[in-house]
Each structure stands twice: as C-alpha cells, then as structure tokens.
Input
Amino acid sequence: MPGDTAMDGSGAPEVGNEEWYKPFASELDWRVAQWMVEQGIGHNAFNEFLRIPGVKDKLGLSYSNTAGLHKVVDSIPRRAGKWKVKHLSFPDRPAEKFTLRHRDILESVRSLWGDPELAEHLGYKPSTLFTDESQDHRLYNEMWTGKWWSFIQDKLPEGRTIAPLIVSTDKTQLTQFSGSRQAYPVYLTLGNIPSHLRRKPSQLACILVAYLPIDKMNRIRKCHIAFKHPKFDVSVTSNLSQ
Output
C-alpha cells in the first residue's frame, strides 16, 4: 500500500536514526535481538528461525545465528567507559596501599546525556513554577526550578547549559573484592533528570562510577570525596562512619 514502510531494512529511516542502534545495522536489527532476549527464545530455536530462507536478508539482520548475535552484543561499548585502577596511600599509613576503582566522570556524564530513553525528559533550562495562578508562592520540585539554576544560567555563554552532578554512596551495599577487601560503591546521576526517573532502578539513570576502599573509610569519621578532571572539579562530603 502507498505510504507503507518496507520491513526488509530497505526503507529510508530518519537521518541519524541508524546511529542510535549501532553496532546493530538498524532499528529492526536491534528489535529482533531484543525480542529474542526478552522472550527467552532458546538458542536452537533462534538458530532455526534465522535459517528460514529469506529471513536474514528480508529483515536486514547483521547476524545469522545466536553466536553472531552475541558477537554483536559484545561489541557494544561499555556504558560510561572502562574501569581504571589507582593505588593510593595516606600520610597516617604511607606504607599501606589502598585500591581505588573508578570510571571517567565525563564519560559517565556523556552516557547519561546521550541515553535515548532519557533524552525527552531532560531539563536543559531553568523554569519558574508557582503553586497557583496568583503566583505568590514558588514551587520547587526539580533542580531546574531553583533560583540558583537561573543565577548560574545567566552567567553562561549562549547555547550552554548546566549539568548538575549528584554523587552518592550507600554503605549498606558493600562489594567484596579479592583478598577479603571491601569497597563502598559510588553512584553518579544528573540533576537534569527528573527525580522520579532518578529513583527508578529500571531507568538506569544512575551510573556506578567508583568503589571506595572500606579499609580506610572505617577509620575516619568523614570522607571527603573529590573527583577531579581537567574540565571540572566536583567534591562532596559524605558521612561514612560505622
């Protein structure tokens, strides 16, 4: 019928849409893989499906069996980049080394900014809300509704916006590493993301960015966490006492 979109991968997609689904060849290529995983299709059954004459070519799939699909999945870049390891020492115990595992903060920010599931929900500019039509009382419910955002935004060049970083750790969630060492997980999210999405685990709006060695943290009352990068400097103070 006129106006129908071909389902063989030959239809002309909107400009740039293919980039969203890489390393898959197209949205359809990705959706078939998603269907296979979410529906729990067995490997043998999926292989039989792909062996049906014409299925792979008509659908424009980039894999011809389950092993090929796994290879495509394995080529997906890790979210927020690779893990890095640093060994730290402190003045009170210079001979003892503490291991800090972390990711690049900018890569984490880019990952959240570039998540298509979050794109339409992000707050890019300040907003002034009121409780009623009289406009006598301000309503503050998201970061971009605060006075501080408007203040900072006015100081930025045209076309720029703010990416507030929210860093948190949960001392009830300890990760066991080799050698009986433990670490606090540190999470990063953005103030541009609505609070109801930040709190929703299935939305993946928080990224694990570091593990702080508990060996050292247990011996101090407070921990000053500093993330330094050539382009910005973020620091927070957390109470990590036992």
Observations:
- Confidence is low (pLDDT under 50) at residues 1-16, 219-242.
- The first helix runs from residue 17 to 20.
